[in-house]
Amino acid sequence: MNFPILSLITFLPIVGVIAILLAGGTDDQKNKFSKNVAILISIIDFILSLIVWIKFDSLNKGFQFVENANWITNFVSYKVGVDGISLFLVLLTTFIGPICIFGAINTIDKKIKEYLIAILFMQTFMIGVFLALNLFLFFLFFEGGLIPMFLIIGIWGGERRVYASLKFFLYTFLGSIFMLIAIISIYWNMNTLDIPTLLSSKIPEHLQYYMWFGFFISLAVKLPMFPFHTWLPDAHVEAPTTGSVILAAILLKISGYGFIRFSLGLFPIASEYFANFVFVLSVCAIIYASLVALMQKDMKKLIAYSSVAHMGYVTIGIFSFTKQGVDGAMFQMISHGFVSSALFLCVGVLYDRIHSRLINDYSGVVHFMPKFSLVFLLSSLANVGLPGTSGFIGEFLTLIGSFKVNYIVTMFATSGVILSAAYSLWLCKRVIFGNFSIKQDSNVKILDLDKTETLILFSLMVLILYVGIYPNSILSTISTSVDQSILGFAKNIPSTLITK
Amino acid sequence: MVYAILFLPLLGSILAGLFNKQIGDKTSQILTSTFIVIGACLSILILLRTIEHAEVLQYPIFDFVNSGSLKLHWSIYVDSLTAVMLVVVNSVSALVHIYSIGYMSHDPHKPRFFAYLSLFTFAMLSLITADNFLQMFFGWEGVGVASYLLIGFWFHKESANNASIKAFIVNRVGDFGLLIAMFLIFSTFGTLNFHDVFIHAAEFSKKTIHIFGEEFNLITVICLFLFMGAMGKSAQIILHTWLPDAMEGPTPVSALIHAATMVTAGVFLVVRCSPLFEYSKDALNVVAFVGATTAIFAATIAIVQTDIKRIIAYSTCSQLGYMFFAAGMGAYNVAIFHLFTHAFFKALLFLGAGSVIHGFHDEQDINHMGGVWKKLPFTYVLMIIGTLALTGFPLFAGFYSKDAIIESAFFSKSFFSGYAFVIGILTAFITAIYSWRLIYKTFHGKYNNTHMDISKVHESGLVMLIPLILLSLGAVFSGYLFHNIYLGEESTKFWGTSIFFLEKMKEQEVPEWLTILTPTLVISSIPISYYLFLGNNNVVKTIVDMNKPVHNFLVKKWYFDELYEYLFVNNAKRIGVFFWQKGDVGTIDAYGPDGISNSVKKIAGQASKFQSGYLYHYAFVILIGVALIVTVLMIL
């Protein structure tokens, strides 16, 4: 067995937690120590995952760096491994990790030590979700992630934090029950929970429909898909900035990952059967959420609804079962990880200074914060899906992939590009342009981005532009795994549109 | 060399935009301008070389998208069409950069302005040098963003911000069409590379497509969606509303983006896709109809506007209409020729108008000008040159290109050729009338400005006048010099593969009456316009009074803005609120999470009432229970 690098990446944050808990000294010393540990651990974790990327063989069709150990005999083994699809989601997680920790240190002022512990726990669970190669293990991490997030919203959140955190928890927990039932029924019918084995075996058709639905409900709530999305705006609004970043950048991606890995991989027949149903829900999400986003008064709510719309493209892409569609869905998830993080961090920057998230309380921010305005504008344009930014490639590929399969759905979905421009640019206009006027108590001078904020946001901007201009950096690595995921659909889907 | 043309503007933009603190205001202005001037010189070299021997050059940069069968590269593609566009874009951009040094001299945000200008130039260049649809779309959206940033450059102005958003969103409506066209092309041809698509166009010319049960010709549908994109960018009727509002931006921007380059991208797109359009007569008819209608529609509005920049903006809209109907007649080379000459004289007119506005300290209403031709002698002469070129006065640039368009309509067998021909001549006349109206009202007659004394009106400095003089050379000579190359016998060789004709255009003898008709109308418009707007004001007044509704209709720009505001903006907002309040809050939350938790509470509350603690309650329940069981047992 090779060096267990994947397990190391997964559990390193927990090591950090233990170190923080064992630390002694005064409160100040403890806080300082925990900050340093969290930063160090998260950066090492990121470097380790970069090593995995470098050593990753993009032509290998199976899982790589696999580790297998018996855990609960004959029932559950501890098995992890990585392929092209999970690789970038892990990288996204380990990249967002340090950003959140830097951001938290900058902004959280109460119980910083506990907050860092929650974030580190979160990181372990999220990495575990993407790497787990056993359904039981997957479910464990999947559910485990709820707890730290529940605490982050419930303890460090805004005024209505209790309502939001309960709504978040109960909503997603209720959804998960269906997945649990599906997993149990998989075990009783297939006698294994090993994901690679399941991927290569065929689940009987009549069972696929029920199991697909079990997974679907759970994943749809978490994505979130229309009409299960109402927990998201509330959770975002109440969560602290870095909580929102984790929620948007990583937590939402679990569903996309689950759809590709399980819905497509395990239940291909059912997926095809339900594809149109998913399309309709996705298009509803895109148009409905965009229109609702247009009228929001709270910046975070606006971005939350825009997330719902953007996730609509992900599901359209995945359920087109075309190479471009799934490529695009993967790309859209990674891109949304960068863009929504940047946007939420931007709102956080404003909130730290002015203590308001209401759009009407701002105007002409650019007069005092030119650097910030540049970042805000660029992120908004990436959110609009401007070519040259990462946002465009994801939207374009998902739509071009799905057009062949269902042109009507694609045309409706494409109208989202007009609406996203409307709500994003209108937001920019109201917040950063215009005459300077900000509701505030005292005449405190509004400062532009400080060094940490500049570093975090500019690194996100560089990534948004880099993958937007050179998308092959990601596409070439995921190609083989995406091919595998749509192998079951290899028979050419007849084009309904073009006749001879 | 070609790499330098493309990337110098980008470099300039980055330096001026991000490092202006380090290099200073002056350096960033000089740097960006120099870069573009170098680009302009190189572009002229390329055009000369292409004229000598037409060749297609392709320079790869690196992989772009690689997803299954979708394989695209970033690359630079230069054929005759691109070479012509390179000269237009770079030379106008270079002159506008230089002009802006003078025009923006009092603005506190100079480096930002120059960064945007250079960014725009970069995007426009990547649009015209693309060898596939996706890279072209990158440039297409890039110019859109640059335009958005520049229209809203004075970000403290509410109207400028609104105009910039409007421009972007209306363009996005067009982009929607362009995206659908790309999806269709990819599902048909399996590629987005121009070359691969165009050589297979003939094979698909008979294919049909089912949309909602109806059968349509595939190429026609593709072309119509492509044209939807072109309509947005080139401000054709229905999607034109953003262009006049875009005049909120600084005047050099209007000259560069909203007259000479970006707005002509739609024409470029249609000409670039001529191998597709040639296989669809229906699509060409639509192009011709929309183009001709826009030409006259915009001209009728221009005649009643009073804002100097808006008059020229509507004039641009109208001239773009000319280009489209030329393309619709299948005379793609004529369309590009008009694009070429128009770039020079329209940029000249805009920059001249800028010089006037500058001289009047930001006055834009022509009713508040007049009688200042002696105070602004150079600007006056240059504006006259621009006007002569625009109206198509014999031997000036517009004369060659506009007459060629009208002739192409005359000879064409297209369905709308008669319509286009009549409108072409009529619009030429109206154009001449409103152009001279502008000149007379601005420079002649009484001085009408009450806010400032005439002595304060001043001529612009050399840094602004020299670009104007260079542009005026283009406005005078570009028609005479190039009409043989673009239209004459040599033209087939010059255009090479860049423009595709299904049927060879035959050289035909133009009847004598036609060669005389338009110039006569144009020349006669000078005294007519003089009489109407200077000689006898009462005539116009009487006409306006007699036709109040018509006049209002024109002043209100055919009520397009009001209609859109009512139909789209208000409804989108209303639906947004409806979905949010009635959908999310009122339905999903009310019956979903909140509803469930409320009913759980309620049921729990009811259930807890059972445990009242009173013995007789319990005894009563037991009694009822026993009675029930006994009854059930007895029945069974």
Question: What do you see in this structure?
Answer:
The complex is a heterodimer of chains A (500) and B (636). By secondary structure, chain A is mainly alpha-helical. Chain A folds into 2 domains: 1-176 and 230-251, no CATH class; 274-500, no CATH class. Helices cover 73% and strands 4% of the residues of chain A. Chain A is built from 20 helices and 3 strands. In chain A, strands 1-2 form a two-stranded antiparallel sheet. In chain A, a hairpin with a 3-residue loop joins strand 1 and strand 2. In chain A, helix 12 runs antiparallel to helix 13 (299-318). The longest helix of chain A has 32 residues, at 323-354. By secondary structure, chain B is mainly α. Chain B has 26 helices and 4 strands. Chain B has helices at 2-18, 20-52, 80-103, 110-128, 133-151, 158-189, 194-199, 218-233, 242-245, 251-260, 265-272, 274-277, 281-302, 308-328, 332-359, 377-391, 397-411, 417-443, 462-487, 491-495, 512-535, 537-546, 548-555, 560-591, 593-610, 615-635; strands at 57-67, 70-78, 208-211, 214-217. The interface between A and B is large, with 65 and 62 residues. Strand 3 (498-499) of chain A pairs antiparallel with strand 3 (208-211) of chain B, so a sheet runs across the interface.
